[in-house]
Amino acid sequence: GKTVAIIGSGVAGLACAIRLAKKGHIVTVFEANSYPGGKLTEIKLGDYRFDAGPSLFTLPEEVEALYELHGLDAKAYFDYKKLHSTCKYFYPDGTEINAAADIEAFKEEVHQKTGEPKKNIEKALRKSSFLYEFLAPLFMHKSLHKLSTWVSKNAFRSYGKLSKFNFNRSMHQVNQARFENEKVVQLFDRYATYNGSNPYQAPGTMNIIPHLEFGIGAYFPTKGMHDITQSLYQLALKVGVKFHFNTSVSKITLHEGKAKGIVTKYGFHKTDRIVSNMDIVGTYERLLKGERKPTKLINQPKSSSALIFYWGIKKDFQQLDLHNIFFSNDYEKEFEHIFNKGSVYEDPTVYINITSTQKPDDAPEGCQNWFTMINVPNNQGQDWDEVIKEARKNILKKLSTQLGEDIEPLIEVEDILDPIKIEVRTSSTQGALYGNSSNNKYAAFLRHPNFSSRIKGLYFCGGSVHPGGGIPLCLLSAKIVADNFE
Ligand code: FAD
């Protein structure tokens, strides 16, 4: 086996460590923070617990695969359940849509509440499943930078269907043409935010995303989202991976075009191979200073960021579920602010994630733990203190109106996560949640590959490289590294 240094213990770094250990390599992870998990961590405020970052869990089999690789029964180490309701949607006019995971029930509910013909919903979900069937094997599971991907059976069967992939129209244009009711358009447009993109710019191909929820399913880890990285950290230890926390890597050392080692506060650490799970921009700008950069790839526009209020709420709102969306009165304007103006719209779409609906010990009895989030532009030097003050006021006003109760007096404890904190804590460029945005049809081809073609022995995994951000794609980036590891 080779010695491998992994820079960062985000979900992709952990998965990569587990996969490379299976291949017989001697793996050491260097992590700047005092804890593993990166964005996928938790916070505790008084008697409340919150998952700090991701809240939606899809494709659990990509977590299980890591246990199975080592001959272990995943269920014994990592437990999760399928959600019966994917999300509750609240519209400004008082309409509520409870999106059941069961497609028949979902179609019926949407039809009842909006009059949208069921066949339109049926068609949209069928299209989403078609996109997934043809595009996932190519764009999610393989490197786009290996000829073998493009001459594979999966590639050839897709070439004849190119015109059906909706590369040339925006997600919104496709949804607008498909549905009669504006509320349904908005519901389906929202899937663009699952990777920090703008439905008015992202290609219709992104309508692949609803299939994850309706075709494959939305899940919740029984011990909370944080258990994903906690369990994988335990698995990594079990299979012999070594960890150094509070150990930031400041340099990747090269010799004759080959990766030779890394530098930390403890000095030089020699290694045969390096995998960077650090954001790709930071990897080039901070660890590979003076080396030639793939400027075009690393300068692509970044995804949106988030502003989150973690609120301990001393009331149990029975009408709220695990995932709740309170839609903006003008979706187009909201995205115009986030992606073109770099500001926050006065009536933002508010997402509330309440894990205590699934895991009661996350909040005291009769209370709820509200992870209250709005999408915001990535950090371009805005006056965030001002943005936060304004947004907090607008969010409270909106929720108080929609829930018919003054929310502010119910807040017992509070903490805030903003784009600057996301950037500082995980080295994510501009505090983007998902690396590059998918706001143009070439985005899939403009992510950095999972290896370096110029520097031998250097690999990349995580949300800022191929195939993209979000837990499932990060896990697949680790798989692609391991599959192409030499
Ligand atoms: P990261 O989590 O970015 O971690 C990178 C790690 O590397 C960090 O621990 C960092 O400290 C370390 N590091 C960086 N530089 C160095 C260095 N020089 N030396 C040592 N260590 C270093 N995804 C979903 O699937 N569903 C969701 O619902 C969802 N919601 C989200 C909500 C929020 C608020 C956020 C922030 C993200 C969300 N995401 C969601 C995205 C998801 O969290 C990320 O795509 C994923 O967790 C990124 O994992 P990663 O492996 O790229 O590493």
Shape estimate: globular
Helix content: 25-40%
Strand order of the largest sheet: 8-7-16-17-18-15-19
Oligomer: single chain
Query: Which structural class is indicated by helix and strand composition?
Result: alpha/beta
Q: Please give the radius of gyration in angstroms.
A: 22 Å
| Overall average pLDDT | 96
Q: State the separation between the terminal residues, measured CA to CA.
A: 11 Å
Number of strands: 20
Sheet-strand content, in percent, reads 15-25%
- Give the uncertain stretches in residue-range form: none
Bound molecules: flavin-adenine dinucleotide
Largest sheet properties = 7 strands, mixed
Count of DSSP-assigned helices: 16
What does this structure look like?
By secondary structure, the protein is α/β, with parallel strands linked by helices. It has a domain at 104-216. It contains 16 helices and 20 strands. It has helices at 11-22, 61-69, 103-114, 118-140, 147-150, 153-159, 171-178, 182-189, 210-216, 226-238, 280-287, 295-298, 331-341, 384-403, 419-426, 471-483; strands spanning 3-7, 26-30, 42-45, 48-51, 57-58, 80-82, 85-90, 96-100, 218-221, 242-244, 251-255, 258-264, 267-270, 273-276, 305-313, 323-326, 350-353, 368-376, 411-417, 458-460. It has a seven-stranded mixed beta sheet with strand order 8-7-16-17-18-15-19. Strands 10-2-1-14-20 form a five-stranded parallel beta sheet, with helices on one face. Helix 1 (11-22) packs parallel to helix 10 (226-238), helix 4 (118-140) packs across helix 6 (153-159) and helix 7 runs antiparallel to helix 8 (182-189). It starts with a strand and ends with a helix. The mean pLDDT is 96. Flavin-adenine dinucleotide binds at residues 7-13, 30-33, 38-40, 53-56, 248-249, 277-278, 306, 308, 422, 426-428, 433-434, 462-463, 469-471, 474. Flavin-adenine dinucleotide (FAD) binds next to helix 1, strand 15, helix 15 and helix 16.
